[in-house]
């Protein structure tokens, strides 16, 4: 199981957290403002590898943290 | 199932040619079904299906094989009902035994709110031609005597919606049925051949680059499951897809018959019995996206806790195997089929945890779309541009997952 180190509570199991999604990233190649909005709302990088994302410590301190995680192995990257 | 099983089947393998009218990336159910219907319904046989591993090695060979049409929005009900009907005649049509078995599905409700949701869904299903009816606890007990109607004291069964048309079929046999039917009509199926890039001429996709060199194509269809973001990126195509692992398990043999499929959207789990007598179970997918096919003890613990409340006999069984597939989940829990906005590249994706039941209808519709250049009405609402147009086909409740 994935263990996440919360900066406030220390190392806690993943089921205490709520996944908050990858950090939104609209590619620079999209220039039209409307297309950028659509991309921001709907599209995902869905990175295969190391990604940066937000998590909410729902069953703990109830604060948000930012995490770097390898999606190939589903492990936290320091 | 092992990677050499293809050599035991009566399939005619071919060497890759340098050019085809249609190249399909992904030799799973959707890719092979599309090739089969292109060959049978539209007389197109200059078709190649390119698969990175063995055919059916992705989610087609990893799902829990449930075929049902009790969805929550009219467009989905019509689509899946058509698929359910195609499945029921697939064995006759292809002459290949797929072990199709109509079992009926009981979708349990434990609260008044869930009962109302099931009643609304049953009425909507009937209006769209899928036979779903409401049943009370007595009828549930008749259909599935093993169920504890008190739910272990915690999850009382107040009623259920019953979908008599629901069925199961042997998943890898479905793959082989379509592969054999397509290959006999001249389609080339090319396993163990990873696609490394898409060939492009200006903005247009003109073929694929493989480990064995380039293959040019009039049309490229991505029927990939689990890695569609990678394929899309090869054509600078952005997709509204997140990839989550979904786990499943089977127990050892339960010696008595277990007739129906039992599903529960409040507990988010489902169970059926395989032809070998094993109890096959699944639940919701992992909360965080990942490409890991690792199984977890937490999944076993969570499914076992829920399932033994409903079906106490499961306590005496042992977990035999557990595995995972990686699923491309769309934001509205409906599939994405059709044009991509990139010339020469079509897509069938977003099959999340609900792709197996859609194989015949999805393949038939994509074949028609490739042959005619227009999406058939059955799949037109599921186009990729629906998100930009603000026409999301939200149907999370019917996915039986979260």
Reading the helices and strands of chain B in chain order gives EHEEHHEEHEHEEHEEEEHEEEEHEEEHH
Shape of chain A: elongated
Tell me the name of the CATH class of chain A: Alpha Beta
Protein structure class of chain B:
alpha+beta
The major β-sheet of chain A equals: 4 strands, antiparallel
Round the Cα radius of gyration of chain A to an integer and report it.
Answer: 15 Å
What CATH calls the topology of chain A is Folate-binding fold
Helix content of chain A: 10-25%
CATH superfamily of chain A: Folate-binding superfamily
| Terminal residue distance of chain A | 17 Å
Structural class of chain A: mainly beta
CATH topology of the largest domain in chain B: FAD/NAD(P)-binding domain
Counting DSSP E segments of at least 2 residues, the number of strands of chain A comes to: 6
Number of strands of chain B: 19
Number of domains of chain B: 2
Ends distance of chain B: 29 Å
Describe the protein's architecture and organization.
The complex is a heterodimer of chains A (78) and B (402). In chain A, a hairpin with a 7-residue loop joins strand 4 and strand 5. In chain A, the strands form two sheets. Chain A has a four-stranded antiparallel β-sheet, with no helix packed on it. A two-stranded antiparallel sheet of chain A has the order 1-2. Chain A has one helix and six strands. The radius of gyration of chain A is 15 Å and the shape is elongated. Chain A has one domain: Folate-binding superfamily (Folate-binding fold, 2-Layer Sandwich), CATH 3.30.2270.10. Helices cover 13% and strands 37% of the residues of chain A. Chain B contains ten helices and 19 strands. In chain B, a hairpin with a 2-residue loop joins strand 11 and strand 12. In chain B, helix 1 runs parallel beside helix 6, helix 1 packs across helix 9 and helix 2 crosses helix 9. The chains are: A mainly beta (78), B alpha+beta (402). The interface between A and B is medium-sized, with 25 and 25 residues.
